[in-house]
């Protein structure tokens, strides 16, 4: 998203159309594979007690994916954050939540 925001935005906005076009079947297949990997990690984390088992794994995946993906719409390098500091902020929010202790 930092080095090629236009390409990421195009992928996000046109994925459903492109995946139905001949020669682009791999887009849908890769999306399904990525989702399966995320869901496997979330459910494994739930099994071993790292993640709460009360959380719906597909919703958690979509929440994280969409929070990260949406940055392509507003993130611009050189305006206060780098990709690294955004990552740190997202992970801090994900790990510790929004509420003060």
Description:
This protein is mainly α. 67% of the residues lie in helices and 0% in strands. It contains five helices and no strands. The protein has helices at residues 5-18, 25-47, 57-69, 71-74, 83-96. The chain is flat.
Strand tally: 0
Chain-averaged pLDDT: 89
User: Major β-sheet, in short?
Assistant: none
- Residues in helix, %: 55-70%
Which class of secondary structure composition applies to the elements? Answer: mainly alpha
DSSP helix count?
5
Unreliable residue runs = none
Shape: flat
SSE ordering: HHHHH
Strand content: under 5%
Summarize the structure.
This protein has 101 residues and is mainly α. 67% of the residues lie in helices and 0% in strands. α2 packs across α3 (57-69).
Topology:
Elements: H1 5-18, H2 25-47, H3 57-69, H4 71-74, H5 83-96
Name its key features:
about 100 residues, mainly alpha, about 0% strand, flat
